Amino acid sequence: MTDPELAPGGPAVDPRGWALPRTVGVSQLGPFAEPISEHNGQAIAVRPLTDHPGWLAKLYRPDMQPEDAHRIDRLISAPDTLPEADRAALYAGTCWPAARIHEPGNPAVGCVIPMAPDQYRAELRRGKFSERRFVEIDWLAKSDESIRRVGLPGPGFEGRLAACRRLTELAAILEGLGLVYSDWSFSNAFWSPDRRSVYLIDVDGCQPEKMPDLHQPNWADPLTPPGTDADRYTDRYRLGLLIAKCLTGQRDADAFHTVAAASWREQPAAAEVLLDMLLAADRERRPSAAQLDQALNSGPYLRPVPRPTRTALPLLPVPITVPAGTGPAVERPESAFTKAAREQATGTAEKQDSTTDWDAGWIWVLVIAVILIIIIASNH
Amino acid sequence: MSLCLPTYVVIDASSSMKPHETVLNATLSRLHYNLATNPRVSEFARVCVVAFSTDVHVVIPMSDMEQVPSMPEVICGGRTDYGKTFDLLRQCIEQDVSGLRAQHYSVLRPTVFFLTDGGPTDANWRDSFRKLVDRSWPRHPHVIAYGFGGAQRSVLEQVATKALFIADGSDTESALSGAISGLLNTLIASSNTGQMQIATDVKGFEYVQVAQEYVD
C-alpha cells in the first residue's frame, strides 16, 4: 500500500460526510444503538451510531495489536492517493473505513464505517414469506429463474456483466493500492439488481502485501497451501472464481466449463483471462484484476508469452437420472403426511390405475371371445 | 470439489403433536423460506425432511432447498416409532451420500437433527439406533437432538451423539420455533466455516453437552 501522508487526528476530508476526525475516542462518538451483527469475523459487534445516522461502529475483538491501529490509519488515508474517479468508485462501492476508534490503552477498539446504502436491500419472497434484507452477491451465482423465484428481477447477461465490471473495478483499485483482501466470496458483497451495482464489505480487514488466508468453504485456492498467507495471487484466483460464478449464474465445476465454452462476442478476451486466473499452473502467472476489468470492458488480453500452462478443468457432476415413473432408489413409503404430495400422487395413481383397469378389461373380453369361438367351433 | 453437509431434519409427527400441527407446518415453511433464500446455505446443506409416527415418511428427499417449490404439509397422528425412523435414515444416508459423491461433492459426515416431543413407543428401537450410529459404518451420522413436551431426557441422552437440547419448560410451540431456529443457525454457521458449528444458544432450550462423542 502506498503510504500516504497520515493525518490521524486531522480534520476529515471525507466526501461521504463523516464529520469527525479520522481518529476518534469512543466517548466522542455518542451512544451506540443495538448491534446489527455480532461475533462475525474480527468484529465482536457492529453498532449504528445514534448521533451519526448512516454510520456504524465496527468494534474489534480485544486481541487486536497496536500495529493494527497503524494499518487502519493507512487504510483510511489510502484513497487520498487515488485519482478522483477511483476514489469515488471506492467510496461508492465499499464500506471503506472513515475513522479509527480508540480508547485509553487500546488504540484499535474498532473503526467507523458507512452503512451499506438501502439500494442493496430488497424484499425476498418465497411462498407466503417475505423479508427485506441485503441481497448478497450469492444470488448472481444462481440462474435468472432462481433469482426471479424470490421476486428479484432476472439480471440477464447484461446485468451480470455490469455487476462483475463493478466488482473487478474495485478489485483492481485494491490491487493497485497493494492491498490483499483475501475474503472474496459470496458473503462479502451486496448486489443491487435494480442499479446493477455491487457493494463490498469488510474491507477494513485488508492488509498490505499478504495476510492470513481467510478460509471459506468452496473458495480455497488450490495453489495457496493451507497455513500459508494469502497474497495478491490468492486474491486473483478468488476474484476469478467469483466473477466466473456470477457471470455464468452457475456454481461449482459448471461455472468453469461454461466459461471454457463461452463465446462472449462483446468481451472476446474475458473467458481467456478468467481461465488463466482459475487454472494457471503457476499462481504467479494469474492475470491481474486490472486485466480482467479491461477484458470485461471489451478490451484486449495482453498475455505475456509463453502462455501459462493450465491445469485441467474440474470434473463435471454426473447427472442423476431417475427413470420416468420410478421413485427414489430407496424404497420410501408412500407419504400419508404430505398433503400436497399425496394429492398429486393420488391424481397420477388414479389415472394409472384406471388405464390399467381399462386395458385389463379389454384382455378379458378378448379371452372370453376366443373361448366362445372355440366352444362354438367344437360344437360344430 | 464443493463441500456438502447431508442434513436430515427428523420431526416427530405423532398424535401428541396434533394440537401443534399448524405451528409445526408454519415452522417448517419458515425453515424452507430461510434455506431457499440463502443460496450459500442451501448449497452447503443438502436437506432431507423426515416425519415419523407409527410409520416414517420422507417429506422432502435430499434436495437443494432452493429448488424445492414449497414445504408439503405434515399431518400428525399415531405412535412414536423411533426404530423405523432410524432404519429409514440409514437407508437414506447410504443412498444420498453415494448420490452426492457421484456429483463430485466432498461429503461431510451427515447430521441428523432429531426433534421429538415424546418417548419411543417401540421396544426395540435401540437395535436400529446402534446400526445407525455404528462407528464401523463409515457414513454414520452425528445426531443432534431437541426434546420438548413429553420427550424423555434419559432417552435423548442416548440418542444425541453430538449435542442435546432440552426445552426449559417453554410450551411446545415456542420450543418448536426455537429448535428450528437453532437448527438453522447451526447450518448457517457451518456453511460459513465448512465444518459442523453447533449453535448452542437456543432460545427456550438447555444445551446439554454430549459427554461421549463418537469419534469420526
Task: Kindly describe this structure.
The complex is a heterodimer of chains A (about 375) and B (about 220). In chain A, about 35% of the residues lie in helices and about 15% in strands. Chain A has about 375 residues and is an alpha+beta fold. Chain A has two domains: about 25-115, Phosphorylase Kinase, domain 1; about 120-295, Transferase(Phosphotransferase), domain 1 (Orthogonal Bundle). In chain A, the strands form five sheets. In chain A, strands 1-5-6-4-3-2 form a six-stranded mixed β-sheet. Chain A has a two-stranded antiparallel sheet with strand order 7-8. A two-stranded antiparallel ribbon of chain A has the order 9-12. In chain A, strand 2 (about 35-40) and strand 3 (about 45-50) form a beta hairpin. Chain A is globular. Mean pLDDT of chain A is about 85; it is low at about 1-10 and about 320-360. The interface of A and B includes residues 139, 187 and 332 of A.
The counted number of beta strands of chain B is: 8
CATH class of the largest domain in chain A: Mainly Alpha
CATH evolutionary superfamily of chain B: von Willebrand factor, type A domain
Main beta-sheet strand count, sense and barrel state of chain A? 6 strands, mixed
Q: Give the assembly state of these chains.
A: heterodimer
Largest sheet of chain B: 8 strands, mixed
| CATH architecture level-2 label of the largest domain in chain A | Orthogonal Bundle
